[in-house]
Amino acid sequence: MLERALAEVDAALAAAAAAGKTEGAELGAAWRWRGTILSALTSYMDTKGSIAASPRIRDAWVQAVQLDELDASAMHLLGRWYCKMASLSWLERTAASVLFGTPPPATYEEALAWFERAEEAQPGFWLANRVRLADTLLLLGRPAEAEAWAERAAAMEVVTADDVASRAELDAMAAKQGWSVTSPPERA
Q: To the nearest whole number, what is the mean pLDDT of the chain?
């Protein structure tokens, strides 16, 4: 199904190019979905294939942001991509070195910049983004700022299944750090 979805989005991008469409949020959304589908496909690949696909994933999300500077979701996904690349294990880095000479360059600072940019583009758009901000700040050794973002995340309403997972991640992070984060009031 993912391969079929990728073929569909590629056909849509080809049709847009053939029609001379080179800008706009809709085209940006197609690029975001291309990156998302490619990312999902990597779960079915070995380490070598997954790492080989990673620059194409990043490039699709960068294209999405270039086409829609307010696409906070694409910015968030880029932040996750940078975190993932920055946290590659020795084995994964070795595999990447065989493929590329060096692994795709990425740092936690770059990840943080994308998460912050997403929050600036659309404040409070996604609980997961604020949780990622807190987590990345912890990875960078900035616990006070991380706790502040954890508090902001905890103040958000939990609505979707993704929010439930993000809230569980936030609660685990807070417990590990000894933070006391409070939930928003229940809906009436």
A: 92
Task: Encode pLDDT of 37-59 as tens digits.
Answer: 999 999 998 877 787 888 999 99
- Burial of residue 143 (CB within 10 Å: 0-12, 13-18, 19+) is middle
Domain ranges of the chain: 2-106, 126-179
pTM for this predicted structure: 0.89
